[in-house]
Amino acid sequence: MVAFIVAVLIFILLGGAALATMAIHARLADHHRSDETNTSVRLVATLFVTMPSLLLGLMMNSAANTYVAVDRNLHVFATDIILLDRSMRPLGPSADEPRKRLLAYVEQVLKDVPISRANEVSEHLLDEVGNSLRELRFDDEQKVALWNDARSVYRQAVQQRWTFVEQSDGSFPSPLICILVGWLTLMFATLGFRAPRNAVVISTTVAAAALISAAIYLILEMSTPFSGPIQLSDRPLVRAVEEIKR
Keyword set for this entry (predicted)? Predict the structure, then answer.
């Protein structure tokens, strides 16, 4: 919702800047509308065309990389959960308790909104999985080895959990967004300066403002993969629940 509001405000600002300079140009004094003034304004516009383009490209690339990285780590986390369950099964009935706690944990994570949130209930359930696993005792050397393997997978799952939790909260600094919007506003204002006031120019300017605002909306949404309309699927964790219940 925040990303949508920001995108709408940017659209209004960019479109308004271009239409405002277009409207006031005819009311300016003659020396403000001279060829020298127009040339200077266009030079400023040319200077600021490159920088916003580069910054938008870098931000889009960063947001896409974040989205892909979190998606990959979510799949790895779900795989670790399945492997943890598989590593506890050979331990026999004594491992039923940690397996039940593991199932309860994954089901609780799926209830969390977003699923990357460090919810106290889900984190307590994950800690209980480790505690109940550590409390197990075996005399058979083979089962001791399997028990150690299960504990190792558990530690790996916990580490992977916090990895994608930290990654999923990534967002762009507000000053960076403000600088980008400032550059774009100046660029649109110079584009509207001395532009002819007709339907073609106005519609083109409004369409350009809308597309740039949509691009910024996409960047902000992809930087938070577990919220908004553009979010990762929870299918890997659903599949992990199905595997545990087998």
Answer: Membrane, Transmembrane, Transmembrane helix
pTM of the model: 0.77
Look up the domain containing 225 and give its range: 1-245
Q: What is the rounded distance in angstroms from the CA atom of residue 242 to the CA atom of residue 106?
A: 10
CA dihedral over 93, 97, 100, 101, signed as positive or negative: negative
Give all strands (DSSP E) within the chain, no chain letters: none
CA distance 109 to 226: 12
- CA atoms of 57 and 43, how far apart (whole Å): 22
Task: In whole angstroms, give the CA distance from residue 203 to residue 199.
Answer: 6
Terminal-to-terminal C-alpha distance of the chain: 39
Greatest pairwise CA separation for the chain in angstroms: 97
* DSSP letter, residue 197: -
pLDDT in tens, the chain (246 residues): 788 898 999 999 999 988 888 887 666 666 556 666 667 767 776 777 778 888 888 888 888 888 888 888 889 999 999 999 999 998 888 888 999 999 999 988 888 766 666 667 788 888 888 889 888 888 888 888 988 998 999 999 889 888 877 776 666 778 888 888 888 888 888 877 777 778 888 888 899 999 999 999 988 888 888 777 788 888 888 899 988 888
Helix (H) or strand (E) run with residue 172 in it:
none
Closest Cα partner for 67 from 246, 230, 195? 230
Amino acid at 135: E
What is the distance between the alpha carbons of residues 10 and 212, in angstroms, rounded to a whole number? Answer: 9
Task: Judge contact between 69 and 167, C-beta under 8 A.
Answer: yes
Residue 94 DSSP label = G
